[in-house]
Amino acid sequence: MSELKMKHIYRRAEENPSDRESDSSVSKKILTRSDMINAYHVAEFVTLTHDGSPVCWPLMPDLEGGRLIFNTGYVYPTKARNAQRNPQVAALFSDPTASGRADDDPLVLVQGLAKVFDQDLQRNTERYVDQILRKGPILFRLMVRTPVLRQAMVGYLARIWIEVIPQQEYVWERGYRPPEPLRWAIRPVSFSPMPGIELLEEVFAWLPRYTRPPILAYVDRAGWPAMARVQADVRRDHIEIESDIQTNEGAPACLTYHRLVGNYWANDTFLVRGHFDTAGKLIPEKVVGFGGTKDDRGLGSLKVMRMLLGFRQQLSRQMEKQARRLPVVRPTPRA
Prior knowledge:
Blueprint (H helix, E strand, L loop, with lengths): L19 H11 L3 H6 L3 E6 L5 E6 L2 E3 L2 E7 L4 H8 L2 E6 L13 E11 L3 H15 L2 H7 L2 H6 L1 H4 L1 E14 L11 E2 L15 H6 L8 E5 L5 E5 L1 E4 L4 E4 L3 E2 L4 E10 L4 E11 L5 E8 L12 H20 L14
Parallel strand pairs: 8-13
Antiparallel strand pairs: 1-2, 1-5, 3-4, 4-7, 5-6, 6-7, 9-10, 9-14, 11-12, 14-15, 15-16
């Protein structure tokens, strides 16, 4: 397949400004598709684990002061801890669901350096409530306007924020090969492949739910996390990937299936983490995510309500151990 025109601007880490005004200036030079970034309600966000392997989850993105903004729950901080350990992260904008945009948008990958904000839990919680009121699903907006209901969800609404300073952007058309720097998946020296597993029968029952091609996350030749939409033929003990990405034997990878229904009425996700063999097949090592319950994990489902109450209990225990109070769930107070 022929390569279409793409945009690629690189800034060395030591050139990164520390103040947000300078971040905004640099971001304007790097980000050519801020129209998409501002409109999209979901982006695939990848961090690198302690052994250098990628993990990709869909998150709600924002763009503020030249930085890409993401958040994760205080009681499930793995993405934030990964970003603290290794600030090289990436975000792929590939799913226009609920954005008012169409599938003829190109794919946009932004690689950047992450800064994690996890100390001021009260401010972080208020910031998340502000985001929900601005762009969240209608039911969630109604819930956080009710003091009793929103405080009951404190375990979910307590947040850690991850702000990403863009370093480079790649743009390419759907169905075409990614730009040249993204066409290699390498094996970090810190990564050691684990034995493969056989996928459970439930995985094959889940697959028809996901109409979009999955996202392949990997490590590119420069050591950055990278992603692309790929075609995947899932077998019991391996996955055949159809793409223009050349893979090194033992290179780690994460194949993410996700499905956003409306504006977060449901957001089903599961991951297959593993490594490539000599033939370029993805060997599964672990399946993470979607449990396949009948209630579909949608807003208002019993499963979600049980999950939210469970988060509150977890947060209460953590705050007690740290001799801290639970945050008050509210919008940012007006001055």
